[in-house]
Amino acid sequence: MPKILVTRRTFPEAAEVLRASGAEVVIWEDADAPSHEDLIAAVADIDGLYAHITNQVNAEVMDAAPNLKVIAEFGVGYDNIEIAAANERGIAVCNTPGILSESTADEAFALLASMARRTNDLPAMVKRGEWGDFDPLGYLATDIHHKTLGIVGMGSIGSEMAKRAAGFNMNVLYYNRNRRDEEFGATYVDSLEKILERSDYVSLHNPLTPETTNMMSTDQFKLMKKSAILINTTRGPVVDQDALYEALVSGDIAGAALDVTVPEPIPADHPLLTLDNCLIMPHVASATGDTRMKMAMMSVENVLAGVAGDWPPYCVNQTEIAGNARIKS
Ligand code: 8YV
């Protein structure tokens, strides 16, 4: 009987499908995620790991799990998994692509709209009883329509962002490693620098890799318009937060909305939280009931296929491990 560890609580429907497979299923139900040491102890005899962003699944974890055939990440980003170590060991790594793109773009666009139309700071002012007499020059916001949105990373989520922006009559630019066949009305720009210079809003949708770590730092903020707003729904380390704080305080850019930070959760005394022109959400772009349920079911599909010795449907390293895959041995 294969054994599966799920590192966070999950939907009852997902747990039921896992258990109905006949596998032994251990679900980490604690309020806190397992520590690295807890994880190492818990993986000793597992065949499948249903993992979450809360844990780094590195070579040490993999070596503590000699039977591990498959790691199914709950999410499209799998930067918390040491993919080179998984490849070396023939462990299949899977994710949940596609199904969360629209929800994530919905949130990214909501952040853009909130910063533009000041639903971030003005309601707090009203609650403080500071709503003064009508003033034609008071509480001015920034338009969304006919402004330029720069999308960095035109994958599935970036494409959904472009579609939303088109509905708001925005001009949309995108920068991507390769020009896309389908552009959703957006115009390709061949460098990060150019898109930063031209955009009123910059929305990040590229994955976190060694190359994109601190991709947005002092030099990049200086290239942006002083009126520009940054939206980050990808991964915290893509933005150099100290440089962002400086840029927001000095006026190099006008505002930022972050769904992701370093670390997560961001400490309550973090300098970014003192700024009115910075909106921070607790990494919830995919967090709608419907989407999280789909992600859970896709993770279940992945982990069950792997422990049964089949290629999981959303395996990201099938080519890399084709010669040494544990699921086939
Ligand atoms: C998840 C995400 O909520 O898919 C991703 O990459 O960031 C989110 O959808 C997160 O990974 C939690 O595991």
TrEMBL record:
Source species, domain of life: Bacteria
Gene Ontology molecular-function annotations: glyoxylate reductase (NADPH) activity; hydroxypyruvate reductase [NAD(P)H] activity; NAD binding
Keyword Ion transport: no
Signal peptide location: none
EC number: 1.1.1.79, 1.1.1.81
Pfam family, one: 2-Hacid_dh
Catalysed reactions, semicolon-separated: (R)-glycerate + NADP(+) = 3-hydroxypyruvate + NADPH + H(+); glycolate + NADP(+) = glyoxylate + NADPH + H(+); (R)-glycerate + NAD(+) = 3-hydroxypyruvate + NADH + H(+)
Span of domain D-isomer specific 2-hydroxyacid dehydrogenase catalytic: 4-317
Keyword list, A-Z: Oxidoreductase
Residue ranges occupied by any D-isomer specific 2-hydroxyacid dehydrogenase NAD-binding domain in the UniProt entry: 109-285
GO cellular component, one term: cytosol
EC class name: oxidoreductase
Family to which this protein belongs: Belongs to the D-isomer specific 2-hydroxyacid dehydrogenase family. GhrB subfamily.
PANTHER family: 2-HYDROXYACID DEHYDROGENASE-RELATED, GLYOXYLATE REDUCTASE_HYDROXYPYRUVATE REDUCTASE
Name recorded for this polypeptide: Glyoxylate/hydroxypyruvate reductase B
Lineage, top ranks: Bacteria, Bacillati, Chloroflexota, Dehalococcoidia, SAR202 cluster
